[in-house]
Amino acid sequence: MTSVPATAVAIAAAVRAGEVSAREVLDAHLAVIDERETDVHAFNLVLADEARAATTEVDRRVAAGEDPGPLAGVPVALKDNLCTRGIPTTCSSRILDGWRPPYDATVVSRVVAAGGIVVGKTNLDEFAMGSSTENSAFGPTRNPRDLDRVPGGSSGGSAAAVAAGFAPLSLGSDTGGSIRQPAALCGVVGVKPTYGLVSRYGLMAFASSLDQIGPFSTTVADSALLLEAIGGHDPRDSTSIAEPLAALTSVLDRGVAGLRVGLVSELMGEGIAPDVLARVHAAAAALAAAGAEIGEVSVPAASYGLSAYYLIAPAEASSNLARYDGVRFGLRVDAPTTAEMNEATRTAGFGDEVKRRIMLGTYALSAGYYDAYYGQALKVRTLIVRDFAAAYERFDLLLAPTSPTTAFRFGAKTADPLSMYLNDVCTIPSNLAGHPAMSVPFGPGADGLPVGVQLLAPALGEATMFRAAAVVEAAAPALTEVAR
Amino acid sequence: MSERLTRDGVAHVARLARLSLTEAELDTYTEQLGAVLDFAADVAALDLADVAPTSHPIELANVLRPDVVGPCLDRAEVLAEAPSVEDDRFRVPAILGEER
Question: Which chain A residue lies closest to B14 (C-alpha atoms)?
């Protein structure tokens, strides 16, 4: 059998050139899934038959001399909060168990139009609320690098799928770090694009002013390839940015000479594990060696980001999740009246963390508390935007940890929700500002587990961010091979 | 600064959110939600009288399209996923006389 290349860039090139068939690529990945998925549980659903049918069409086009597109024959795993027409989409919640959406998310249509092969729907914390996938109604995903540890979350299934070799690419969503944190914990690349760069049409809403879809991959170039395929204006999302997408794959080799990179003081101290800090400093040294100027910068309001986020995101969620009422889709628990049916359905259908956030948000928005909590949080958001703007007057990019620690053990933080929320301290500020940020693996921490370093950029600064990411990647020490 | 969230307060919020809680859940959520709100006290205590709120990271404007009929979701496909349907519509239990 022809050998299948490891990266999406190489797979697409080989499929387009007719050197390997999309079917061979898929079969090689399905074999890895067969071997390890029982241990990892990255997927809620593997779409082997649908994927095989899709490869037949890609291979037919190549044989006919047509170009299937930039993702030709590349397997792509989708977080199970992205709508797929006629295919169950659950948000890892009982309340949507078995529901089949009547339409595809825009990102799904774009992956397919680019020749990508959808291989399955990945596990997540219910409704993307969590940092470990332990909140999934269908059981947790395990970290492929250490099965006793969490993969991070909420897009833990998408991160694990790429780390385990089930697919070279996957999509997740990031509301407070849900792409970057699991990418860091699983040792893969994860990108949260500028708010509005990628259409949210067909992404089940958690917190609409914060949610953004983005890629996971093993290489920086592969994430650039996928982001180019899914990004750009969509009339179906009223918050979609109208400007054309900047080129990413063609600028990756431009280096960082002369770029000013600031280490964020507020995220480089208390609460961050020493081995994680050491890796971030090492990444800064690597950027300096490549010609970047490194400095320190204060983003004072970042210290209030976590508090503001855990008022704003639940407030928006309490409103967005009002639609799960047993009337139009998903679970219904019968009762004599509609009001009783609504309550019985939501009580049976939602898990503990989702209930916790709905109540927190309902409280933050309720009469008498709105100004003290939600109103204050929105003002802090203004301060964060201002402080970032000041930092970007002096620096082109910022550098920080992605996650305060490496992957933790199952159950370590489930009893104390606040301790789980603290995982998001480094990632939340970018969501509140709507800015892009990405996590790049930068070698192992003290325990041998992956550490991710986070690059942050101003709005629409993806091209510069990816250039720096490529430099960081090139200097990164190898992680240990995926445990077998 | 507001007073601490009480057990009755949690019960009230659960009612507003159409969730029913057991007695044990009420205790747990009162403690957990209180801890998160205590943590958020730093934000609640800031003097931000002169700061304008930001509800959204990018400037929002109405997005309009020409007023012409275009393709929309297939009715049969949508209704096929509903828990209960009658005469091409979503069916629900009694909505009148439900006040308690």
Answer: A359
